[in-house]
Amino acid sequence: RVDAELCRACGECEKACCFEAINVTQVAQGRKQAIVTEALCTGCGVCNVACPTGAASLSHFKDEQINRMIDD
Q1: What region holds the 4Fe-4S ferredoxin-type domain (predicted)?
Q2: Across the chain, what does the average pLDDT equal?
């Protein structure tokens, strides 16, 4: 899931996703946003870590849980 208010369309999440589940797409004139294709998303959390603004998040896990899994 991507929070449209926080997303700067920088593409970091798109680059980080090895499942190609995220694409930065034009959503309105002059406005781009990262869009997640839910069918391709495995919920691994890499996009969450890569996102500099915290716009990318997983609906199943809290940020603290993801960071703990990565640290282990």
Answers
A1: 1-27, 32-61
A2: 89
